Amino acid sequence: IDSAECKAVIKQAKNSGINFIDTAVGYTVSEEDIGEALKEDPHSFFVATKSMARTYDSMKTDILSSLTRLQRQYIDLYQIHNLGEPDYELVFSENGALRALKEAKEKGLIKAIGITSHNASVLDKAIDTNEFATIQFPFNIVENQGEDIFKKAKANGMGTIVMKPLA
After folding, report:
1. Contacts of 3 (CB under 8 A, 6+ apart)
2. Is the whole-model pTM more than 0.90?
3. Do residues 115 and 132 make contact, with C-beta atoms less than 8 angstroms apart?
4. How far is CA 104 from CA 62, 97, 101, 152, in A?
């Protein structure tokens, strides 16, 4: 949809009681359109975004770019997007994306750090680190393999976000 349609959708969402928006750096122009739509009332929604950046420098760049595109002073939830096994160690390393997220949180640029994945074992390990406020994983009528991971996250005081709820 174009920017005008995005504004209309967000207005209807707000009027319907929806208060959560999840986007990502990689979703073409969604951050720009959402930022423009929320410009007059920037904190009427809890805004989550995410990045595929795996290194410190690239995540730092993406956080600052997301703030600009979303036209916000801070982002409510910034997530490591679709982490898989091959990049897991890099993200947690000294030169990894997690370090940039923690620094941004300390500076007030983001309020919480989350993680998303299509791999339950990756999230299982990530939950054990106690580094994340939320996890996001597919869960719907045909994909229920995330049930145990959601239960573990809840037991550890983490928020859960369902990915692909309508399959």
Report:
1. 29, 32, 33, 36, 37
2. yes
3. yes
4. 11, 11, 5, 27
Is residue 154 within 8 Å of 140, Cβ to Cβ?
no
Q: Phi and psi dihedrals of 125, rounded to 5?
A: -65, -40
- Asked if 116 and 153 count as a contact pair (C-beta separation under 8 A), the reply is no
Structure tokens given for 157: 């005081």
pLDDT tens-digit map of 10-54: 999 999 999 999 999 999 999 999 999 999 888 899 999 999 999
The angle at the Cα of 92, spanning 86 to 98, to the nearest 5 degrees, equals: 115
Q: Which residue, 36, 49, 55, is CA-closest to 110?
A: 49
Instruction: Return d(Cα 71, Cα 42) in angstroms, integer.
Output: 8
Residue type, 18: I
CA neighbor of 76 nearest in space, from 111, 43, 41: 111
Residues 161/22, Cβ–Cβ less than 8 Å? yes
Compute CA distances 74 → 18, 92, 98, 161, whole Å.
Answer: 20, 23, 17, 20
